[in-house]
Amino acid sequence: MAGIPMVQAESVHKSYGRLEVLRGIDLTVDPGEVMCMIGPSGSGKSTFLRCINHLDKIDAGRLSVDGELVGYRQRGDKLYELPDREVCRKRSEIGMVFQRFNLFPHMTALENIIEAPMRVKKESRAAAEATAQRLLDRVGLADKVAAYPNQLSGGQQQRVAIARALAMQPKLMLFDEPTSALDPELVGEVLDVMRKLAEDGMTMIVVTHEMGFAREVGDTVVFMDGGVVVESGKPREVLTNPQHERTRSFLAKVL
Amino acid sequence: MQAGRRPEAIKAIPVRHYGRWLSGAVVLAVIADLGYTVATAKVRWDVSANYLFNKLIREGAVLTVELTVAAMAIGIVLGAILAVMRLSPNPVTSWVSSFYVWFFRGTPVLVQIFFWFNLNSILPNIGLGVLPNGPWLWHESTNVLISPITAAILGLGLNEAAYMAEIVRAGIISVELGQTEAAQALGMTRLTVMRRVVLPQAMRVIIPPTGNETISMLKTTSLAFVAAVPELFTRSQQIANFNYRVIELITVASIWYLVMTSVLTVGQYYIERRFARGTQRELPPTPFQSFRRMFFTYHAPSPWPASASADSERR
After folding, report:
1. Which of A197, B13, B153, B196 has the fewest CB atoms found within 10 Å of its own CB?
2. B78 and B158 in contact (C-beta within 8 Å)?
3. Do B281 and A151 touch (CB under 8 A)?
4. Three-state SS for A43?
């Protein structure tokens, strides 16, 4: 595919202290692509996701979103750290959904959604509320406008969290194990919302343990282990005909 | 499955609590003894009663409240600023905040009030300028600038800020890191994250000790005595200097302090309820509600019949 990739990683390294979490990640996500990242816990999937919107800093390599480096600006052959304001502006263009939802508990569903559009994009309350209503409708929670997060089930909370991220009209959505903290019967409602989002052409990176979702919705599946990409390709190929021994043994355990 | 018919309610002979009767008897005996001692002591209760609503005492009580409000206002605002400074990634602000807390928490508040009260003896004038010896953009005599009341407010307020800084910091740390990350991921700046997401949630942890500090401050204002500030305690002592009824006038002051701290205690309950929004399914009872529950429910005090079952339903 031609054009600028939405995410491009070249030899991305990241350590926490002496622990090397990412040991050279190379991958490309094109606009409109849905990439599912699978792999055992501790393999660096979540860390990589957090690096994309600069919640974590990478130590070496190159990582760019929509053609611009994450966290730095390049002039000549020198890298300049971006000031906070610039980092915030770039984050506002990337939506993120967390395993533990992380809704703001002191705000209603509606307030959770309008907060960032009003404070970051300086939208009027009326405009932000109109968008929020539309988004709540889209995730099937039109009647939960005034509910506080603790009055919602896990699945409902995660759908509000997705609506909150979408309210910023992101060009890229990151999902960090969005269904791992949910009761089994609530997983489906969240995956349905994500499936619709993918159908609407959103660029998505999804860290997940839901192999069914990866197979049906993913354009690409990436298997990570020990801080490197072991294998990647079409879901059919990676999930049904893995080339690598580590992929095979992982899939044997989860399928 | 259909629910079975509800069987007859259990009727059983309650366990006899002999310990309660015994301890009740002991307490009654002690109260009777104390009452007798106080009643026969050479205290002129009529003097206390006469001065309870004396004009000087009333004015003193008003000044005590004003001192408390002013000192706590300085303490809370400056304390919040110090806490945010302490947690900032900027090493200079963080260090300044630590130093402030170390210094103002490490010296007695009585000494601090005394210092501001006597500042004029070392600095007759206070001015604002670029160079240490002028020219001044603005200057004023220290005596005019720092009245006894100002000295007391400065001493109490600046000292309180050191304690409030630690309380606010504890509150901020108590908020889950995921909240900050979610807000950052939405593109909020550090200040917006703090103001809109972290501090409102930290309030739940900050308020109870702040109420405690306010109640403590109400009584600590009596230290303004050393700066001759005519607050409640100073006034009661000034009267006692004339009529030599020290205990009687201490009693008057104590009654006022007790009444005022009681009012604050009730106020704290309501503020806590306000900030419990979104954290509990059922708000805690108001003092009035719990008072009613205590005295007007006799048997089988089953606390929270609703919340226990609601908890297991959800999730």
Report:
1. B13
2. yes
3. yes
4. coil
Nearest to A11 by CA among A22, A21, A26, A29: A26
pTM: 0.80
Structural tokens at position B4: 């079975």
Task: Provide the 10 A C-beta neighbour count for residue B241.
Answer: 10
The conformation of residue B224, written as its DSSP 8-state character, comes to G
Max Cα separation, chain B? 93
Contacts of B176 in chain A (CB under 8 A): 102
B278:A148 CB<8 A: yes
Exposed e or buried b for every residue in A152-190, given b needs 16+ CB within 10 A? Answer: bebbbbbbbbbbbbbbbebebbbbbbbbeebeeebbebb
Closest CA to B160 of B63, B88, B66, B82: B82
> Does B201 sit within 8 Å of A103, measured CB to CB?
no
Q: In whole angstroms, give the CA distance from residue A78 to residue A199.
A: 40
Structure tokens at B242: 């004339």
Q: Do B201 and A105 touch (CB under 8 A)?
A: yes
Identify the residue whose tokens are 């390709």. Answer: A233
Only one residue has tokens 């991921």, namely: B185
Residues in A 57-86 with any Cβ partner in B closer than 8 A: 84-85
Regarding beta strands A172-176 and A204-207, do their DSSP bridges make them parallel or antiparallel, or are they unpaired? parallel
Q: What are phi and psi of B127, to 5 degrees?
A: -140, 170
Q: Report ipTM for this prediction.
A: 0.93
Q: Which two tokens mark A92? A: 């506002």
- Tell me the pLDDT of chain B averaged across its residues: 87
Shortest CB distance from B200 goes to which of A106, A116, A120? A106
* pLDDT tens-digit series, residues B108-166: 999 999 999 999 888 888 878 777 777 777 878 888 888 999 999 999 999 999 999 99
Cα–Cα distance, B22 to B1 (Å, whole number) = 51
Q: If we measure between CA atoms, which residue out of A143, A150, A115 comes closest to residue A129?
A: A115
Out of A102, A103, A105, name the one closest to residue B181 (CB).
A102
Per-residue model confidence as pLDDT tens digits over B40-53: 888 888 888 899 99
With CB atoms and an 8 Å threshold, state whether A88 touches B201: no
* Furthest C-alpha separation in chain A: 55
CB A210 within 8 A of CB A177: no
Give me the amino acid identity at A115.
E
